[in-house]
Amino acid sequence: MKKFFVFLIIGLVAGSAAWGATIGITVNAATKLEASVDQSTWTIALDNSGTAIDLPTQGQLTVKASKSAYTVTFTSANSGTLNNGSNTIPYKVKVDTSAWTTGVATNNLSSYTQLTASAVKTIVFQSRTPTVGKTFAIGFNIAAYTDYYVDGAYTDTITIAIAQN
Amino acid sequence: MKKYVALLSLLILTGVAVCAQQSINIKAIVAPVGANITMDSYLWNIALANDGTISYQNDQQGVMTVKSGSTWLFHIDFSSEHLGYVKQGAYQIPYYVQVTEIPSSYSGFILPSSIMDGYVQLTSTQSIWFLGRTPKAGIRFYVGIKIDATSGQFFESGTYTDTLTINFVAL
């Protein structure tokens, strides 16, 4: 009788027949890459006393990214100087990413740096952000000076861009 | 003498058993005429908002038609190449499928199954068993798919894929 059951089971397995259909599923997860600042205009008073200006939380940069590898780039329209006609004031900026060390691969702006044209300043990231993003303080600095700056309004434009690597 | 009769009976019984086994094989190898599974679409392209809030759910992503042909006892099996995930390299997103019968005049029985009770992840094969032949035109089902958003988190953006296989198994 053992043979009977063995043969019967084998018979059922071998006798099963299958036909199939396959469906290819493709899911496109949308890309989110965004760099924004809390204020698009900074108005800074310079008292012409020669004292340095140091504003470590002048602005806030918020980065949102659904990619793991991306770069934020800082450039200055006047190569890191505030201009008033032919008069200029050099300034520096920094971005404090120290609270997210696991997400940042390199930061050219971890300390005050002038945004000269010779080398583009970048922050290279290696992790996605939460959907609310990650926010970093932007610092602004004008070094102490011994000569008066010519009175007037000095301006520059900083452009912050984000791109996937 | 009784021993011989008993032995003879056993031999005859074994012989019948062997014959029965062979007949089972022969019956099964002959494919049920007209049995098949078809879909209205064999490629599903899904756009995921990827904002950490909006999930994707389409209860009628596809329409599946099942025709039993001449067989009356069969099951259809759902399996996933990546065990219920769509993948992009090392990144993966879980997804869930559900099958819903579109009302018809089918007079057979469809046994209860998880995949017809709600959305399930295809971490293993999910089966639906049928007792009774379908009408010649078959019976139809909606196949749904659901992808949950992960609250407050992005998925790695890009293109994820998987292959969903539906097998018709006749017994």
Overview of the structural elements:
The complex is a heterodimer of chains A (165) and B (171). With 165 residues, chain A is mostly beta strands. Chain A has one domain (30-44, 51-145, 156-164). Chain A has 1 helix and 11 strands. Chain A has one helix spanning 2-15; strands at 17-29, 33-37, 53-65, 70-76, 81-84, 87-90, 92-96, 104-107, 121-125, 134-142, 158-164. A 4-stranded antiparallel β-sheet of chain A has the order 2-3-10-7, with no helix packed on it. In chain A, strands 8-9-4-11 form a 4-stranded antiparallel β-sheet, with no helix packed on it. In chain A, strands 5-6 form a two-stranded antiparallel ribbon. Chain A is elongated. Chain A starts with a helix and ends with a strand. Chain B has 171 residues and is an alpha+beta fold. Chain B has 2 domains: 1-30; 36-170, Immunoglobulin-like, CATH 2.60.40. Chain B contains 2 helices and 11 strands, in the order αββββββββαβββ. Chain B has helices spanning 2-29, 114-117, and strands at residues 36-39, 43-48, 56-67, 73-80, 85-88, 91-94, 96-101, 109-110, 126-131, 139-147, 158-170. In chain B, the strands form 3 sheets. Chain B has a 4-stranded antiparallel β-sheet with strand order 1-3-10-7. In chain B, strands 8-9-4-11 form a 4-stranded antiparallel β-sheet. In chain B, a hairpin with a 2-residue loop joins strand 5 (85-88) and strand 6 (91-94). Chain B is elongated, with a radius of gyration of 23 Å. The two termini of chain B are 42 Å apart. Chains A and B meet through helix 1 and strand 1 of A and helix 1, strand 1, strand 2, strand 3 and strand 10 of B. Strand 1 (17-29) of chain A pairs antiparallel with strand 11 of chain B.
